[in-house]
Amino acid sequence: MSKDYYGILGVEQDATAEQIKKAYRRQAMKVHPDVAQGDDAADKFKELNEAYEVLSDPNKRAVFDRGGDPMSNQGAGFSGFGGGFAGGFDFSNLVDAMFGAQGTRGPRSRVRQGQDALIRVRLQLHEAVFGVTKSIKVDTAVVCPKCQGRGGEPGSEPVTCVTCDGAGEVSQIQRSFIGDIRTSQPCPTCRGYGTTIPRPCGECSGEGRVRSVRNISVRIPAGVSTGIRIHLESQGEVGPGGGPAGDLYVEVQVAEHETFRRDGDNLEMVVKLPMTAAALGTTVDVTTLEAEWENSDVADRKVAVEVPAGTQSGTRIVIKNRGVPRLRGGGRGELGITFLVQTPTKLDDRQRELLREFADVRKERLDEVEAHSGGKGGVLGWLREAFK
């Protein structure tokens, strides 16, 4: 064996293809005639390329490892700055090895994976809280119903490209001081597919897919909130050539409610109380969010709430397990009810007289008021806590 290709590249005999490529890249940066000094730079570069050509090809490497001559059919070799490598040196190998580029290798498939799709669905609060099944319209690419993704008219099959002979790429050879340089690019006739379609499908123009609006049923779990995305596998865009569909993501947006406000897993509401009811105490029936959910138990659509005598504006009571179902962990949050005591604004003479009598009995003077310190945080802090 006249040459030690492993030694030229500086790798062990069990080196992997990636290690060989990295070694060639390092050596090429050093011995390339444009950067190396000395009269033997061209010879060293020629040896390096020959070593890489052999060791990067599994068949030639196997012949070399068995003691054979892997270059026996490759001609006389390098002939100097004005000559070229026998059989032509593939410049793309040099680019791949030195810069990690991945050039075109063979025809590419017409069938490719489709993209994911995203749509948004707007829910009412009770739908988000208790869950719902929605029928939604999705405008995506689907498999062409006429050609079934093949791209050609019925009875028309793809034929081998006459320009690239099915390779999917065309090459050009240019002579340079380092030899014959071969560059490759996708075939302009078949666009790299290696085949052409003589009679493209009139429905999809050879794409294998068309736009279509379809209805799909989406099960939305209880407890979702704005921004939650539901993942539906293989319900997105069908790929070119009728390729596998991507996934569909349904993003939830929850509308505001005129009565209930959501706070995490809790629901909050305000109940107005007449001044007399707040002073004397009473029991009120409060309509819950279940009243808007047709699948709820009738008994759950109202809840009896005890109002203690002397209830003040801002008083909040809690009803357990009447809030939002938790997406994780189970159970429900609470329903918070804040009372707002209403002062009458329109009084007749009799009502006005009764209120004056009530004030006299309580020895209250209508022209005297007492400032509220507000306690910790001052008056503003007290108001924030009262109406939180």
TrEMBL record:
Single GO MF annotation = heat shock protein binding
**Annotated J domain residues:** 4-68
Q: Which GO terms describe its biological process?
A: DNA replication; protein refolding; response to heat
Cofactor requirements of the protein = Zn(2+)
Please tell me where Zn(2+) 1 binds in this chain. C144, C147, C201, C204
Q: Where are the annotated CXXCXGXG motif repeats, by residue?
A: 144-151, 161-168, 187-194, 201-208
What residues does Zn(2+) 2 bind to?
C161, C164, C187, C190
CR-type zinc finger positions in the chain?
131-213
Chief location bin: cytoplasm
List residues of the CR-type domain: 131-213
Q: Which domain of life is it from?
A: Bacteria
Keywords linked to the UniProt accession:
Chaperone, Cytoplasm, DNA replication, Metal-binding, Repeat, Stress response, Zinc, Zinc-finger
Tell me the compartments it is located in.
Answer: Cytoplasm
UniProt xrefs under Gene3D superfamilies = DnaJ domain, Heat shock protein DnaJ, cysteine-rich domain, Urease metallochaperone UreE, N-terminal domain
Question: So where does this one cross the membrane?
Answer: none
Q: How is the cofactor bound?
A: Binds 2 Zn(2+) ions per monomer.
Q: What does this chain do?
A: Participates actively in the response to hyperosmotic and heat shock by preventing the aggregation of stress-denatured proteins and by disaggregating proteins, also in an autonomous, DnaK-independent fashion. Unfolded proteins bind initially to DnaJ; upon interaction with the DnaJ-bound protein, DnaK hydrolyzes its bound ATP, resulting in the formation of a stable complex. GrpE releases ADP from DnaK; ATP binding to DnaK triggers the release of the substrate protein, thus completing the reaction cycle.
Q: Which HAMAP family match?
A: DnaJ
| Protein family (similarity comment) | Belongs to the DnaJ family.
Which NCBIfam families does the annotation name?
PRK10767.1
Q: What is this protein called?
A: Chaperone protein DnaJ
